[in-house]
Amino acid sequence: MSVDVRGLNVLVVGAGRSGRAAAELLTSRGARVTLADTRTYLEDADHLHAIGVSLDLGPHRPDRFAAADLLVVSPGVPLNQEPIQAARRAGRPVVGEIEVAARWLQGRIIAITGTKGKSTTTTLASRMLAEAGFDAPAGGNLGTPLSRQVAASTTSSIHVVEVSSFQLETTDRFHPWIAVLLNLSTDHLDRHASFEAYGAAKARIFANQTADDWAVVNADDPMALALARRGRARRFDFALETRPDDGVTVQGDAIVRRDGGAAVPLVPLASVKLPGRHLLADVLAATAVGCLVGVPPAAMRRAVEAFNGLEHALERVAEINGVRFVNDSKATNIEAARLAIESFEGGVVPIMGGRFKGGRFEDLRAVVRARARAVVAVGEAAPQIEEALASVVPVDRAASMEAAVRLAYARARPDGVVLLAPACASFDMFVDYAERGRAFKDAVRRVPR
């Protein structure tokens, strides 16, 4: 695809946030855009028609796909669908919204990916840069599509972009100045054919980097390191457990930058408000980005001190009669659930379940045995969770979030923690993890005081 799309027939597949944003951007650049979605009704259809976007609603038709000059696929659309495969067989280029938007950005890109911690790291890195006076909007998978940043992009902009494996697998020329790989563990095997395919999608974040770019990598994660070594960028590590020669770590009571044998203090640990060592690792990653961009330590510290975390990421909801309620609805895979449970010393009653994405619930046995009093299982994966964990702690099943919160509260009394850590996608019961987290918080509000 050329940056000049004037007159091209472009089919945008999927009318979610990313698809709509791509359709609007491409239309503004002179393309003839059709937005295809399997739904038969879109609330903003009149707006889309008014700006020149045609709609193709209902079942996808392979002939329409194969006739387009270009396909732009939304992250939620699996690439193995027959209409998309038909377009590829016809020689049509297939890319994603991130790829399209990035080609029109004037500023540089900081791209952040990983199995866990993307949103926290993206948000905090953006805030650090803003504290230092940079124009550093956050977006991508985080919520604001990158296409919406194109109009305001200047040569001095630094776009801090959260990118998922779904977005990365549809990139071609996507070229971050700084690419961050936070960690890598089993996830999205309901979409990717294997863990290797998932890792290969993540590794695309490094594919177009050169020796003038930077790869920021978790030195405590061997799989992340292995992927980064394939790239050409200079490495700058962060780590909690190891001491990188050139990178960011914890030393004494501070986050420091190590440069050879020297350690320069950057942010006091007392400034970090986030619970859990995995969230501290995200702070280290954001700090590493700040170092490379040139953010002064004082600006880093101000950003960290003002950052209380994101909604649905180990979010403190309430304390009722000595029981704490914590919402980690973003813990959508098994490793994320393990890290969430490990954030508490004991007395945890996790609410787990939803649509299974791959991995082994048996891998949670050790942490559940050590720190949980019981488990409440919900959704499609409830039978698998019960089979995997019932020999370790009591496992209760619940048919709704309301019932799950009541059961977990009873098990957690008098001094435990009710933790929403699903280890699964939300799509069996909810639109997304955010709706699931809000349902949890609503149920907590109805717990008798």
Describe the structure.
With 449 residues, this protein is of the alpha/beta class. It has three domains: 84 residues, NAD(P)-binding Rossmann-like Domain (Rossmann fold); 207 residues, Mur-like, catalytic domain (UDP-N-acetylmuramoyl-L-alanine:D-glutamate ligase), CATH 3.40.1190; 131 residues, Protein-Tyrosine Phosphatase, Chain A, CATH 3.90.190. It contains 16 helices and 20 strands. The strands form three sheets. The chain has a nine-stranded mixed sheet with strand order 7-8-6-9-10-11-12-13-14, sandwiched between helices. It starts with 8 loop residues before the first strand and ends with a helix.
Question: What is the topology?
Answer:
Elements: E1 9-13, H1 17-28, E2 32-37, H2 45-50, E3 54-57, H3 62-67, E4 70-73, H4 82-89, E5 94-96, H5 97-102, E6 108-113, H6 118-131, E7 138-140, E8 158-162, H7 165-168, E9 178-181, H8 195-203, E10 214-218, H9 222-228, E11 234-238, E12 246-251, E13 254-259, E14 262-268, H10 277-293, H11 297-305, E15 315-320, E16 323-327, H12 334-342, E17 348-353, H13 365-371, E18 375-378, H14 382-389, E19 395-397, H15 401-412, E20 417-420, H16 433-445
Parallel strand pairs: 1-2, 1-4, 2-3, 4-5, 6-8, 6-9, 7-8, 9-10, 10-11, 11-12, 16-20, 17-18, 17-20, 18-19
Antiparallel strand pairs: 12-13, 13-14, 15-16
